[in-house]
Design goal:
alpha/beta, six-stranded parallel β-sheet, galactoside 2-alpha-L-fucosyltransferase activity, about 20% strand, four-stranded antiparallel β-sheet, Glyco_trans_11, glycosyltransferase, transmembrane
């Protein structure tokens, strides 16, 4: 029996992998050897002989039948293990909610691309916000191999071609290419827990009741620790008021003849009130991060300044997205571990100050 397996690696798709199974019986039809031949070429085979069953000492017809049944079951089990060995992929969480969402989504995407089972034994901040399903607190990963990224926001093909063993993939993994093929599953995974979704629905329902036939654009303004000197030296850029003027104008040009309300949330509400002067703006009051997240990601479109929190708001909203293009400044330490086209999807629109 031969099973032809096609490689999932597009660079080797022309090479067929052949797995052959050969059964050997003795003269009494009671001893079975299972030979497995495998290589990347049908003309260069290697054999592995699995342990054979013990010979029937009594050689009776009844015992032969029983032995044959047991052997057949063992053979089927061995064949199943040879064809469909289950491999797992897990990860280790770092940072806050937005960072953890990137890590989790990339783990799921990398697993699905390589026929692995994604699993985590600790949910971090995610389980308090989303209805995560790939959680197994009892799984033991102590002997699993660690594979780490080389750069926090640059696509690495090595992560899409992991060795055939259980793996712990580590890093910030901030690249949409790792998981876009699994986006339907990831959107389901990032379904808000009922209490957060209920609060978001109530806020948006109130807005829509007051603003009939308005398009609601969520605006996330990240400042906080990004304005600190140490983070500026690392390379983080901060959007100025001029960026939001341009972003509002661009959104209006994309939605002609529409009534638009810009719903603004920020970790620096005072700065926003002082610097974002537009009659179409409504400011969200201070509330917990999960609530801000759920409200803005339920809007029709999104404008964001920088940071993974705003990135995921835009991705989940799945409308038109405008982002601040210089959130990582050139020729800084962070710049050399970052690639704009790997971090931001190409259908999003980047603007500068």
């Amino acid at each position: 029996m031969a099973v032809h397996l096609k490689s999932s690696n597009p660079n080797t798709v022309s090479k067929s992998h052949v797995v052959k199974f050969m059964l050997s019986f003795d003269s009494n039809n009671t001893q079975i050897d299972l030979h497995v031949y495998a290589n990347s070429s049908a003309n260069n085979e290697r054999a592995l002989t699995l342990p054979s069953s013990t010979q029937n000492p009594n050689n009776s017809l009844a015992n032969e039948s029983s032995s044959s049944t047991r052997t057949t079951t063992a053979q089927q089990s061995a064949t199943s293990r040879a064809i469909a060995t289950k491999l797992y992929l897990t990860t280790w969480f770092m940072g806050r909610l937005g960072n953890q969402m990137f890590i989790y989504a990339s783990m799921v995407g990398l697993a699905r691309a390589q026929n692995r089972v994604p699993v985590i034994n600790s949910g971090g901040d995610l389980v308090n916000t989303f209805q995560i399903t790939n959680l197994n607190e009892n799984i033991n990963t102590n002997r699993w191999k660690w594979v780490s990224e080389s750069a926090f926001a640059i696509f690495e093909s090595k992560l899409m071609n992991l060795p055939p063993i259980n793996i712990i993939v580590t890093g910030y993994l901030q690249c949409w290419r790792y998981f876009q093929h699994a986006q339907d599953e990831i959107r389901r995974e990032f379904t808000f827990v009922p209490s957060i979704q209920k609060e978001a629905d109530a806020v948006l329902a109130s807005c829509r009741s007051k603003l009939q036939n308005h398009v609601i654009v969520g605006v996330h303004v990240r400042r906080g620790d990004l304005v600190l000197s140490r983070n500026k030296r690392l390379g983080y850029g901060v959007a100025k008021a001029s960026y939001f003027v341009k972003a509002f104008a661009k959104m209006r040009s994309l939605l002609p003849n529409q009534n638009i309300t810009f719903l603004v949330a920020s970790d620096d509400l005072t700065w926003c009130i002082d610097n974002i002067n537009d009659t179409s703006v409504t400011f969200l009051p201070k509330m917990d991060a999960g609530s801000h997240f759920a409200i803005l990601s339920s809007c029709d479109h999104v404008i964001l300044s920088s940071g993974t929190f705003g990135w995921w708001i835009a991705w989940l909203a799945n409308g038109t997205t405008i982002y601040y293009k210089d959130h990582i400044r050139k020729n800084t330490p962070l710049y050399f571990t970052y690639k704009d086209s790997d971090y931001y999807p190409p259908w999003w629109i980047g603007l500068r100050n």
